[in-house]
Every structure is written in C-alpha cells, then in structure tokens.
Amino acid sequence: MAKRTCLVTGGAGFIGSHLVTRLLADGHAVRVVDNLASGRLQNLAHLGNPPPAGLTFHKLDIANLPELTPLMQGVDWVFHLAGLADIVPSIQLPAAYHHANVDGTFSVLEAARAGGVKRLVYAASSSCYGIPTVTPTPETEPARPQYPYALTKFVGEQYVMHWAQVYKLPALSLRLFNVYGPRSRTTGAYGAVFGVFLAQKLANKPYTVVGDGKQTRDFTFVTDVADAFVKAAESEVVGQYMNVGSGNTYSINRLVELLGGPVTYVPKRPGEPDCTFADTGKIKSLLGWQPRVNLEKGVAEMLKHIELWRDAPVWDPASIGEATKDWFKYLKA
Fold first, then answer.
1. Which of these is catalytic: 147, 149, 180, 207?
2. What integer is the mean pLDDT of 51-68?
3. pTM of the predicted model, to two decimals?
C-alpha cells in the first residue's frame, strides 16, 4: 500500500512505541510527539542510534496548540495515544488529568483539522464502562466512569466523535482493554498487574493478589493493539468507537499460575469490575481485525523480557495499602 506520513502522540510510551515500530516496519514515516512525562526515549532505543531515516522525535506537550499545529503539516495519519493513566493519581491530581487527556485531545483535534490530516485514531479506554452490566461488554453499554482517569479519557473520546460529526474530521476511536506486553511502564504509581507481578517475581516476593483472585481481565497483547490501530487507519470507517480485546477473559489466579510463585492477598478495591471482557464483534465486522496472541503466548513473551522490570518498585501489602488509601477513601460505596 501507499507509504504514509504518520504522527504518533505518546510515541515514546508503552503502546505508542510498539505502534511506531509497526509503522516503520510497514515503510511509513513517523513523527513522534511526546513530552516524556510517562514515555521514555529508551522505549525507542531498539530502533537504532542514529534512529531510522523515517523517524523524527519532538519533545512537546500536546496541549501546546501553537507548537503542535506545524507538526501536522503533510501528515496523513494521526494516532493519538498521549495522556496520563493510572487510577490513584487521577483521584489526587484531577486538574493534571484534565489537562493531558481533555485539553490535550482538544489540541490534537484542532491541530489535525488545521493540517487537513486524512485519518485520526484515538486511544480510548475500556475503563469508561465502569462496572458493566453485560459481559462480554458491547459498545452499546452505557459509560459509567468510576474515577477521573476513566472520565477524562471518555470526555476525550466525546470530543473526537464530535469533531468527526461537526467538522467532518475523519476520526475514530478504539477502546482498549487491559493492554500488556514488553515495555509496559516499570516505574511510578501502583498500577497494572503485570508490572507489579514481574517485579515481585524478580525479587522472589509473593504476588499481591487483590481479593480472591477470581476476578477476570481481558488481557490484550500490545502487538495486537498496534495492529488494530493500523487497520483503523487503513479503513474508511469514521465517527465510530470500537472495543479492542483479546477475545477472552482470564482470572488473576490463572495469571499467577502461568507466572509461578507464592501468593499473598490484599483487600478487594471499590470501583473495580469483577470481569472485563470486550465484545469485539464490531471491530471484527468493520475492520476485519482479529487478536492473535492468547494469554499463554503473551506471558511467555513477557517472561523473556522480565529483566526490564529489574529496577521496578517491589510492592507489598503495606506499600499497596498506603498507595491506594485515596482509592478506598473516595471510591467506597
């Protein structure tokens, strides 16, 4: 197919760096925009030094519209992945999350509109569903955000849909479920279970399982997610939001079984669903996308890269209790 000029916001982040790798492998030129608040240049180091001719990096806050707009000139595809994640920091710092995830998205949309881009794909979050009433969860399930991260990502998606409707911006949105894989974040706030467990495994500490471990998650491997973004860009679908999931849901106990090792338990947390499980019928129908990596393959791949978590924080029940006290304070029923 024709070679495109692509712009990836958050391209030095976990998912963004995998998408950049895929786009370069497909022969496209890529402009990465990242303020390195959570992204790391190390995530792009595997591409070489000096970087490939088709790759440029721009350290920039996406909310800076005057500086972002010129970077959109000549861009065909925009992939908007930049933003702030994690639950507890969003409760503690709602203004920062609004700035990154709402103001930042508005800026990206306006810059893309000014640049006349041909496609824009937004990275939305399945957290918008809150505690869903239906599993597998279809896109028709109402949004019930439980915390500011989920809310700001959903509001960002509403902006994307509105710009598609009013300004005819050729945009669509992908609601991502529990993405994991190499280069997922190793530092910062207490968060994604894979990073927590891999650091504990390296330190020969027990896995801190929340509740009874029977809760299930739609763990979706990052290369499958990158493939969904590419298929979305290649399509002519506009103004739609679609789930991206693995086609299955797996218990935390099953994850522990695959990783191997002892377990300790921490209290179940409010505002968390017992099951996340995407109904992926819509994306399969509209884009012809299918996940390829099941949990067993994905965990084996993570274990090959386990040294990446050597310097990650090692959480225990006491430190988790301290890190999540605002979670219980604000999200309790």
1. 149
2. 97
3. 0.97
